[in-house]
Amino acid sequence: MAGEQKRNSTLEPFILLAKNTKGAALIALINQLLEAPGVYVYGEFLDLPHVQEVSKGPNKEYSQLLNIFAYGTYLDYKENEVSLPPLTDLQKNKLRQLTFVSLAGSVQCIPYSMLLQDLELRSLRQLEDLFIDAVYADVIRGKLDQRRQLLELEACIARDVRPREMGHIARTLQEWCRSCWSVMSAVELQVDRVGQFRARRLQSSAAHEG
């Protein structure tokens, strides 16, 4: 989707600051990052040495929270809420938008009832407002089907990928490439056959005319 380059540039200042920040200042920076508009990927930030150290220290719950924003959903947060820092309203809405993206990767049409429950929303108006905000932020594209009570998702941004999932993705891409080569080979074979057939017909026509 459009806006990927802009999102990367929005993350860059946080990466530069985190390289020389530790302790309480780094925790404050993480909170700012999770609120920041336009930032929806966190993998590069998570890989920074100082950020990695947070997972082994007294504030490890902030590392866990950052991982949920990178890879998880609002439901993941709610299931572990007692051991995680509280979310601000801005953070809640961003995590809900990221949940839209995760859902878009598995289903195209999502019932309102599922969204209201998984996103912990109290009304359809809240759901509509959240959806509109996500569309204007260029996080997702889709439409609300009021008659069927469904959210129809058409496209979405990419989210971070867990390191352990990279192997599976690589294998899937390899299989896709092999399938593409097979199709291309079959097409080339058919083109050759058509060419040979046309050549024989031309030769036959020339022989008859001669």
UniProtKB/TrEMBL annotation:
GO terms for cellular component: COP9 signalosome; cytoplasm. Keywords: Cytoplasm, Nucleus, Signalosome. It is found in: Cytoplasm; Nucleus. Component of the COP9 signalosome complex (CSN), a complex involved in various cellular and developmental processes. The CSN complex is an essential regulator of the ubiquitin (Ubl) conjugation pathway by mediating the deneddylation of the cullin subunits of SCF-type E3 ligase complexes, leading to decrease the Ubl ligase activity of SCF-type complexes such as SCF, CSA or DDB2. The complex is also involved in phosphorylation of p53/TP53, JUN, I-kappa-B-alpha/NFKBIA, ITPK1 and IRF8/ICSBP, possibly via its association with CK2 and PKD kinases. It comes from the Eukaryota. Belongs to the CSN7/EIF3M family. CSN7 subfamily. Residues 1-158 form the PCI domain. GO terms for biological process: COP9 signalosome assembly. PROSITE patterns: PCI. InterPro entries: COPS7/eIF3m, CSN7_helixI, PCI_dom. The keyword Ribosomal protein does not apply. This is COP9 signalosome subunit 7B. The lineage of its organism: Eukaryota, Metazoa, Chordata, Craniata, Vertebrata. Its main location: cytoplasm.
